[in-house]
Amino acid sequence: MASLPTLQMDKLLAALNDAEVGQHPVEVHGALVGLICGGVEQKPSGWTQPLLELMNDGQALPKELQSLINDLYEDAVTRLSDTDFGFSPMLPQEEESLSKRVEALSLWVQSFLTGIAIIQPKLNQAPLDVREVIQDLSEIAQVEFDVAEDEESEAALIELMEFTRMAALMCYAEFGPEVDDNEPIDVGVMH
Asked: Gene Ontology terms, cellular component aspect (predicted)?
């Protein structure tokens, strides 16, 4: 079963192209998840402007595109904060060539790292395990796109995707919203 963000990829790509925004959906999702995992304020006034800076030089987006991104944001927060929903990076389906999926993972990770670095400029002061994960992600962002279409390469991609998924969850657990027992929040997270 495909995840909701993957199902929205074609719709988001069309809206990005219509708005003449030179981003791929995996880049938008990666940056958005990076901002969320970095601990961006989870109100539209908190996350919208940093995302617009990353993807459209701070300019407002057409209403349809903004609506799709709002939905993507809500989905990402829900999936990151509740393991029952199964967070995963937005990537092309298995029907796409392995090279295309590897390139998409690299783009997603690059955008994720950019998003998290904007919100957490002192990542070098994060706990050691988080710093190591960020370093590993920076290596994934530079992975070669020209890969053999074989079972070994497919298995390696699946392993990289799982590592990326777990790295995002780890960053969200480290930098995401704290649960305050005295104040209700929209997103339930256990720390």
From this structure: cytosol
Positions in the chain short of pLDDT 70: 1-7, 179-191
| Amino acid letter for position 177 | P
As to burial, measured by CB atoms within 10 angstroms (0-12 exposed, 13-18 middle, 19+ buried), residue 174 is middle
Q: Retrieve residue 114's tokens.
A: 């950019």
Q: Whole-model pTM?
A: 0.87
Residue 59 DSSP one-character state = P
Query: Among all chains, which residue has been given the structure tokens 């002192």?
Result: 122
Decide: helix, strand or coil at residue 17.
Answer: helix
Provide the Cα torsion 146, 151, 154, 155; round to 10°: -130
Distance CA 166, CA 171 (A): 9
> Which tokens in the block code for residue 163?
């590592």
Closest CA to 67 of 8, 149, 2: 8
